[in-house]
């Protein structure tokens, strides 16, 4: 028997008529709380229509197991660029060299799954050759910010003893600093080669691509002796899909359409703290 589901409508002040329309499709009575409405005893045959109705009204929404709580998870896995943080680091580094349009176009196509990730990464990194290492510090200090709700989500995980894994197709310069500054438990990314204080345009070590992200999730999960259903993963690009599939719950955050379509849950309007509303 499948677990009882609850439709969570993420809306601080939902329109009563909108909520009534959604509840009719879902087949239950809504309970309105701070930041979300919850509808139990839903009709499974109408799930897709109910989610589409929520989106038409401008609300994020998701079906979750009714008895699932955030504390039931033991590991949160997150992508970095455009997921935990507000920028694509490589695009901002390129901007300092005056190459942002060229690099950003490749980044966008790679995130949509139109290009081989490893080849696209090497192509973009090659364009950064000659930049001083100080450009990385400039991006971290002046341009990089956590996405809305990230600090609240990370604080909730710390409070519940949920381990946090940052796994990125970006660079260790940024993941290492985020790990230290925000108390993350694990962080993996690509290593830029730097010689005499300047970027060479090459990487060292293995590339953290889609398959590597999935492997790192699995290895960390196994080391912590967790089940698949105890892992929550968040990402936005095509290279995040294998790890989202591997997780017990995969969440697309302001993601590319193909990722939102395949993930268990898509957050398209709210912040990362919306996850806290899903699993109270």
Keywords for this entry:
single chain; 280 residues; alpha/beta; 11 strands
Helix count from the secondary structure assignment = 13
SSE pattern: EHEEHEEHHHHHHEHEEHEHEHEH
Helicity level = 40-55%
Average pLDDT confidence is 95
C-alpha Rg (nearest Å): 20 Å
The stretches of 5 or more residues where confidence is low (pLDDT under 50) are none
Strand order of the largest sheet: 8-7-6-5-9-10-11
Secondary structural class:
alpha/beta
The description of the largest β-sheet is: 7 strands, mixed
**In percent, how much strand structure appears in the residues?**
15-25%
- Tell me the span between the first and last alpha carbons: 23 Å
Q: Specify the overall morphology.
A: elongated
How many β strands by DSSP? 11
Family: Belongs to the HAD-like hydrolase superfamily. SerB family.
Cofactor: Mg(2+)
InterPro entries: HAD-like_SerB, HAD-like_sf, HAD_sf, P_typ_ATPase, PSP
Keywords: Amino-acid biosynthesis, Hydrolase, Magnesium, Metal-binding, Serine biosynthesis
Textual characterization of the structure:
With 280 residues, the protein is of the alpha/beta class. Helix content is 42%, strand content 22%. The chain contains 13 helices and eleven strands. The model has no long low-confidence stretch (mean pLDDT 95). GO terms for molecular function: hydrolase activity.
Summarize this structure briefly.
InterPro entries: HAD-like_SerB (IPR050582), HAD-like_sf (IPR036412), HAD_sf (IPR023214), P_typ_ATPase (IPR001757), PSP (IPR004469). GO terms for molecular function: hydrolase activity. The protein is 42% helix and 22% strand.
């Amino acid at each position: 028997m499948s677990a009882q589901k609850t439709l969570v409508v993420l809306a601080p002040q939902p329109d009563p008529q909108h909520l009534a329309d959604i509840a009719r499709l879902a087949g239950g009575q809504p309970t309105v709380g701070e930041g979300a409405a919850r509808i139990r005893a839903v009709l499974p045959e109408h799930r897709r229509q109910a989610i589409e109705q929520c989106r038409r009204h401008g609300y994020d929404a998701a079906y979750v197991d009714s008895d699932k709580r955030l504390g039931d998870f033991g590991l949160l896995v997150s992508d970095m660029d455009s997921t935990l943080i507000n920028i694509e680091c490589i695009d901002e580094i390129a901007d300092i060299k005056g190459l942002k349009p060229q690099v950003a176009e490749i980044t966008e196509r790679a995130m949509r799954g139109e290009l081989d990730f490893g080849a696209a990464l090497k192509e973009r990194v090659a364009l950064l050759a000659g930049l001083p290492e100080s450009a990385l510090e400039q991006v971290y200090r002046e341009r990089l910010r956590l996405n809305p709700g990230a600090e609240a989500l990370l604080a909730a995980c710390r409070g519940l003893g949920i381990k946090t894994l940052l796994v990125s197709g970006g660079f260790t310069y940024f993941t290492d600093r985020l790990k230290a500054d925000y108390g993350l438990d694990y962080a993996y990314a690509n290593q830029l080669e730097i010689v005499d204080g300047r970027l060479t345009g090459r990487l060292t070590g293995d590339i953290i691509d889609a398959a590597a992200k999935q492997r790192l999730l699995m290895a960390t999960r196994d080391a912590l002796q967790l089940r698949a259903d105890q892992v929550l993963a968040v990402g936005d690009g095509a290279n995040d899909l294998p790890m989202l599939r591997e997780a017990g719950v995969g969440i697309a955050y302001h993601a590319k359409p193909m990722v939102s379509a395949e993930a268990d849950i898509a957050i398209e309007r709210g912040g990362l703290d919306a996850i806290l509303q899903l699993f109270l």
